[in-house]
Amino acid sequence: MIDVRIDNFNSEEYLFVGLLQLKYHSLILNNIDKFVLKKGEKVSEIKRDYAWQIAPNLLASFKYAMAGINYTFITQRNFRIHLVMGSIALSLGAFLHISHIEMAIIALTSAVVLALELLNTAIESVVDLTVKQSYHELAKIAKDCAAGAVLMAAVGALIVAGFILLPPLLALDWVSLIK
């Protein structure tokens, strides 16, 4: 069944999207044997031929992961902000000579924020792909919850960095530092 809203497309776009969906559905129907497990076959044994193909080697896996990080860095302002803030926190920790464990805690909390930002971007992309240009309340909820997860992690990282970095910062002799 083709589910395309006519009011969102002009006639050429409607025809193009309709043809793409027909091609996709016929691709699935003509190759249904590749999507159904045969008796005794495990999911890991299925040969995948399309976009959900398994990376042929470890280097390709890293290449795909870097492509995702690169896409997020280029398109998401908040990812760049979190990256800069994490770098500042780590640089400040190095300047203040905090312990290795404290540095690891700051690095880990920064990495969690960045990882959640990557997941947020992935969720937003999948939701946009699914609902296209139409509004759906569940799509809004999914996007808001993903953004909320990033916000919670960022606030947590800020609190952790504050507990670790503020005491040595306040203990600095600022007068001798300026001279």
Reconstruct the topology from this structure.
Layout lengths: L10 H20 L27 H18 L1 H19 L4 H32 L5 H35 L2 H5 L1
Structural class: mainly alpha
Got a strand count? 0
Enter the CATH topology name of the largest domain.
Helix Hairpins
Radius of gyration: 24 Å
Q: What's the level 1 CATH class of the largest domain?
A: Mainly Alpha
Which term fits the overall shape? Answer: elongated
Distance separating the two termini: 74 Å
Total domain modules:
2
What is the helix tally? 6
Q: Work out the helicity level.
A: over 70%
Average pLDDT for all residues:
81
- Give the low-pLDDT segments: 1-11, 13-19
| CATH-defined architecture of the largest domain | Orthogonal Bundle
Strand content: under 5%
Order of helices and strands: HHHHHH
State the major sheet. none
